[in-house]
Amino acid sequence: MTATTTPAGGLDALGRRCLAEAHGFVRERAAEHFAGRSEGALAVTAVPEFVAGGKCLRPLFAYAGWRCGQPDSDAAVRAAAALELLHCFALVQDDVMDGSELRRGRPALHVRFARWHEEQGWAGSAARFGESAATLFGDLFLVWSEQLLRESGLAPDRLARGWPHYDAMRAELAVGQLADLVNDARALPSWDTLLDVLRRKSGNYTVRRPLEFGAALAGCGPELTAGLSEFGGLVGEAFQFRDDLLGVFGDPAVTGKPAGQDLRDRKASSVVVLAAAMADRRQQTDFAELIGLPAVGDEAVGRWRELIVATGARDRLGELIRERADKALAAIDPAVVPQPAADLLAALAARCTDRDR
Amino acid sequence: MTATTTPAGGLDALGRRCLAEAHGFVRERAAEHFAGRSEGALAVTAVPEFVAGGKCLRPLFAYAGWRCGQPDSDAAVRAAAALELLHCFALVQDDVMDGSELRRGRPALHVRFARWHEEQGWAGSAARFGESAATLFGDLFLVWSEQLLRESGLAPDRLARGWPHYDAMRAELAVGQLADLVNDARALPSWDTLLDVLRRKSGNYTVRRPLEFGAALAGCGPELTAGLSEFGGLVGEAFQFRDDLLGVFGDPAVTGKPAGQDLRDRKASSVVVLAAAMADRRQQTDFAELIGLPAVGDEAVGRWRELIVATGARDRLGELIRERADKALAAIDPAVVPQPAADLLAALAARCTDRDR
């Protein structure tokens, strides 16, 4: 497969199509359930707004999988968009569980609902209300995702091929989040353990599963799907490595999160685990000191960054990303993957591995 | 319709069939996702156990709806059992939101997972872990419910008639819970407001919607369904009134909850709201004093109970339950409802309105 790709503009237009379906569906559902109710006044606007901020990465991969076997289709765009609502479910509830205050540069949904509770002057804990409300909207995103897929307009026999992949994705999401809750509470994992968790959770969830789901809906055969699975596994890992680099070195203006958020959260991300594995004796001492800090502020973020760069982990992770991206593109066989789909896949691989947010 | 009914033993056997389907499905899913994982060690047993404690009231109503139009069917039992998993989702997440420590006489799921976290000696907040884990298992119950229904074995065209009712139930559950969160934080509602919330949430959810769902799967016509809807609305209200009486006067050995739990939770339940409406001037003073107490302990529960009895609200609510039960039975037209289904409905109405737990 050559490096010539769908122009980024094409990907953006497709992403907007997916987002329009997801957003439109949620706007209608939110109006149906919450319009005219005092307790639903914020939900009518805030819940669709949350969807509107998405990048539709998972729908784009699902749609690329679809295009490996079928022509352009509005019904397939709707089916793919269901994955964006599944992602909204995961984000909203993860933010509650992790106590994350910011999402996409704005207050997280539970924070918005907590503030609103305060503004209403209601009795009881505003923080508790915010968390409960966000959990409920997460539940609704989960319900709406399945409903959008079922009502996408794809024929029942097509859908029947997609459900097992969709069910696996939903289950893996919860199972992976449970592993994450426990991981957070443990010591730094080994590089191998980390790769295992990463493959099961983010890697599969973001790239590989959506691709396989889309290919299944399109009725693609085993040979083509095997190539997509390999591509997806590699791009998924590269995506997560890049995400972890951004969690340490990313620009707040671009990521929408405070600088070094993952360090502040003491997240055992790939870049931290790799740095620990690559540290020499003196660096190991610095490492132990930083890990022992009671809280990670701006100054500690600066020290962490210097240490990670000094171990060579930042550069090495960049190499690992490029290696995986190259290997992924090589897994796409032009003899079995139609050109428009191959172009989409190449553009998506580039977006996942070069992206700055 | 006469009062001769399916013997309670028949209802129990049917309930066991529903529960076996729900429990078996969850046991398989839990083993599939959590067996062999250290973080899933408790989930493999505790999550199916949670299902095993259920009474399958909603599946029984759904199945009664089914039997209004179709003969006995294992696939229909599975489809009905999906509502038990939906109920598990609601219970688990409601207990987290309400901070309820007990469920069915045992520690709530979030409490079990919090204690387990402590026993493992893991770092981080055990309470927080328990809540997050329970929320995730709630999510999985929501997913598994839909999956059990989809994979019940009912033909796609039958399922297609049931989905709108199922979707409405799921959405109403979340919407009703949001209203509840806000209600808890407000002053005592009026009797009319309370009836409105009660109809929208528990009443519809427990009886009417499951009946309509089952009847839709069975392909019942509008006349029959209208009768079921009327029956369901009335029995649902009576069920909730009875539940509220038990929340104030129920025996802990039977309810599985501390005596006067609703009073301790300051729940504005039907019996409290009715007592407020029926109180004379002197009783209103006592009422205000009890409402103003900083905490409701054993002694206050005793005083609350005396006051409620003295206003006449306990007896009046008993009359309202009987009125609704009688009116509900009259809504079942023997000319359109087949005898086995009518027997089931009568037995269920009796169970909902005379039950002591």
From TrEMBL, chains A, B:
CDD domains in the cross-refs: Trans_IPPS_HT (cd00685)
Gene3D superfamilies: Farnesyl Diphosphate Synthase
Gene Ontology terms describing biological process: isoprenoid biosynthetic process
Any single Pfam family the record assigns to this protein: polyprenyl_synt
UniProt entry keywords in alphabetical sequence: Magnesium, Metal-binding, Transferase
InterPro entries, A to Z: Isoprenoid_synthase_dom_sf, Polyprenyl_synt, Polyprenyl_synt_CS
GO molecular function, one term: metal ion binding
UniProt keyword tRNA processing, yes or no: no
Co-factor requirement: Mg(2+)
UniProt keyword Transferase, yes or no: yes
The family this protein is said to belong to: Belongs to the FPP/GGPP synthase family.
Protein name stated in the entry: Polyprenyl synthetase
